[in-house]
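The pair is set out directly below:
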Amino acid sequence: MSEYTERVASELIQPIILLVDKEDPAGEDEAIAAVALASIAAFLQDPVNPAWHPWAHGAFGKSVRRANPKAFAKVRREFPEHALIEIGGAQAAGLAPVPADEMPKILAKLQVSGTQLPQSGGVLGGQVVIVLDASLEMSTGKASAQAAHALFAWLLEADEDIVQQWIADGATLGVRQLSRDDFTASMELAHGPVIHDAGRTEIEPGSATAYVLLAG
């Protein structure tokens, strides 16, 4: 097991846009999984984009922004290169990293903080599982960003054959939100880096937030 500490944000940020429909909201776990998969899907569909290398070796920053259906459709039209992920009623669009001080206006206007979706009421299953510490009471947006950190960090360190087989089998992704005791007890079984938050929003600096387990 290794550890990955989320560092202070640098110049490059990966925008991930989460559809939030107030009339028919998606479940939280589905949204978390959609954001995490959108993050890596954007990379996998365009790995030669020169922004990925410095981003992945820098602060690894992500910005999960929420959009209503109208704004979400507009983002998809404006950025046709986006990677769209749909899980249940959740939809997320991942983009390649951009300089933080050059965030496109259409994205910069979207809200970051306060994104909260209803709990799904169950455990979302998959071959790869993201485990989150429920005791931290993270918002849906915060938990999604931490899940995306964990999945991307796992992707970069995992055996390539395992990753390719997972993708070939449909890249199913589970989400488990555990109590602090259960989260800590399972940490030694993590198949990827354990994410520790920088503490800029919502939670204390250094808090362990997420990691990946492989089902079975």
